[in-house]
Amino acid sequence: MKRFTLLILFLLITTYSFAQKQKKEKEKETLDPDSTGVVSEKLQPTTLPLLLFDDSEKKEKKKKDKKKRKKNIFYGVKTKKGRIKSNLRNQVQYVFFHYTNEPRKADPYIRDIYWFDTKDKMIRSKDFDPSRGYLLHGPYEKVIDDKLIEEGHYFFGTKHGTWLSFNDKHVLQDKLHFSEGWPKDSRVTYYNRADNKIEKLTPIEYELKEGNFYHFYEDGQVAVTGEYRYGEKVGLWTEYWNSKTKVVRKREIQYQEVPFSKGFRPYIRAEWDKEGNLIYRKDGLGSN
After folding, report:
1. What's the rounded Cα separation, in Å, for the pair 129 and 1?
2. Quick one: CA torsion of 220, 224, 229, 230, rounded to 10 degrees?
3. Residue 57 — φ and ψ, nearest 5°?
């Protein structure tokens, strides 16, 4: 009986120690994002660019939409109207838009997802939260003192079609073309076009790289992610190991936060091995 009691006590102590160790490891990961290079959510390549840049298919879809267009229904989705009024430098600004409560997961490859924050009564382009707002979908207009300044369309939170901007004399200043968030001039390269094996997605505006960049391994695993602004690399660029079972960061390179920053030199922020163990971190970012 005494041996049995000691065995139970030993098992309880062992279980408790293991649980405490796991708890500490989780707390460490929360406080230290570099503690592991393993990425919890696996990115997969998108087939959208191939389909979106097919003008013949878009024209056919547009004809069908015109035939069955109904009030407040855009791209086959029912929407609601929204309006935001504000004062800007003694000028009255109105933003007219449509939004949808139809659920749709945001494309992780698109940098800007526009949504109506119903709590703060404003339009945001980052960190979409379905619990507090809705994706913009359909026509959009910005008017200042009864003068049209900007107009375009949204498709589930992404800029879509032709977008125009004007000065206060209604002279056209900008004309951009989008396909569900992708600038129309974006470049898509393939390992195999027939099988839609995407190699690189490079966003282009005004012949400059602008937006989120993606490079994939031939098997579809993400290889490199980063962001361009005005043709310059900015922020954190991440390289990944080509792992079959999980996504593991290989290296993070820190670039300038703002384009054309004088005197800034890119540097390796951190590195991990194929198992996700931290092997290097730049001094000043925490202990190695």
Report:
1. 58
2. -80
3. -70, -40
**β-strands 208-209, 211-216 pairing:** unpaired
Domain residue spans in the chain?
Answer: 48-59+74-182, 185-288
> Closest Cα partner for 248 from 280, 208, 278, 218?
278
* CA distance linking residue 31 with residue 24, whole number of Å: 10
- Which residues touch 146 (CB under 8 Å, ≥6 apart)? none
**pTM of this prediction?**
0.62
Distance, in Å, from the CA atom of 269 to the CA atom of 91, rounded to the nearest integer, reads 45
Q: What CA–CA distance (Å, rounded) separates 13 from 110?
A: 49
172-199 pLDDT tens trace: 888 888 888 888 778 888 888 777 788 8
Closest by CA position to 99, among listed 134, 125, 74, 68: 134
Q: Which two tokens stand for residue 136?
A: 């913009």
Q: What is the pLDDT of residues 115-171, one digit of tens each?
A: 999 999 999 998 899 999 999 999 999 999 989 999 999 999 999 999 999 988 888
